[in-house]
Each structure stands twice: as C-alpha cells, then as structure tokens.
Amino acid sequence: QVQLAESGGGLVQAGGSLRLACAASGGTFSSYSMAWFRQAPGKAREFVAGIRWIGGGTSYSDSVKGRFTISRDNVKNTLYLQMNSLKPEDTAVFYCAAKFKGGTSAKSSQYDYWGQGTQVTVSS
C-alpha cells in the first residue's frame, strides 16, 4: 500500500511559479511510474505530466509543455512538479498518482494510488 501526500500548492499571480511535491511512503517508490493530474471546478480530471519508473522518461500535456517540469528523487521518495509562467487556466486541484511499473498513461484509471490533492490558484 502506497501513501501519497502532495504539498506546495497556493495562490500565485499569473506569470508566477510554484513547485509541488508529492511524498510517497509504504512502497518501493522507484518501482512506480508517477504522474500529476489536475481537476478544475466542473471539469474532468486531466493528465498534466508523467515520469517513468525506469529510465525517467517524461511526458506532458500540450497545455503545460514548455512551462512545467516533472522530476523525481528516488532517494527522498518524492515527486516534483515545477510550474512556471502560470496562467489563470492552470487553477485546479493537483493530484499525484502512482502506477506500478509499466509506462505512464494519460488515463487516470491506469493508476493504482492517489494523493488527496493540493489546491493551486492563479490570479489574473
């Protein structure tokens, strides 16, 4: 059983930056591909970025490519999301998710464990 806990959300002005973190416990973090999803009010949960358990290959949604960077520290059992040039449309609850081995996926149903989420609000 893997527990995930996000942190780092908050209120930021458009053009600003935030760094989210997701601390993992209870499992072998390095055996999990990890991802960030987000859900805005009234909208479906959407894939933001993913990083493979082996090789560290990354993938991004078109809406964040070039602005967000996903990374992981397998020693600290922590996943990160560096968010730059934030826009009001990035406002959402951000969730981290873990998928045992295999590649990352944009489908939320493919993930085994989820965190509780952290709110990111970008003001215009």
Structural write-up:
- By secondary structure, the chain is mainly β.
- The protein is built from no helices and eleven strands.
- The strands form two sheets. Strands 2, 4, 5, 6, 9, 10 and 11 form a seven-stranded mixed β-sheet that branches. A four-stranded antiparallel β-sheet has the order 1-3-8-7, with no helix packed on it.
- Strand 7 and strand 8 form a beta hairpin.
- The radius of gyration is 13 Å and the shape is globular.
Please write out the topology.
Elements: E1 3-7, E2 10-13, E3 18-25, E4 32-39, E5 46-51, E6 58-60, E7 68-73, E8 78-83, E9 92-100, E10 113-114, E11 118-123
Parallel strand pairs: 2-11
Antiparallel strand pairs: 1-3, 3-8, 4-5, 4-9, 5-6, 7-8, 9-10, 9-11
Summarize this structure briefly:
The chain is 0% helix and 51% strand. The chain is an all-beta fold and 124 residues long. Strands 2, 4, 5, 6, 9, 10 and 11 form a 7-stranded mixed sheet that branches. Strands 1-3-8-7 form a 4-stranded antiparallel sheet, with no helix packed on it.
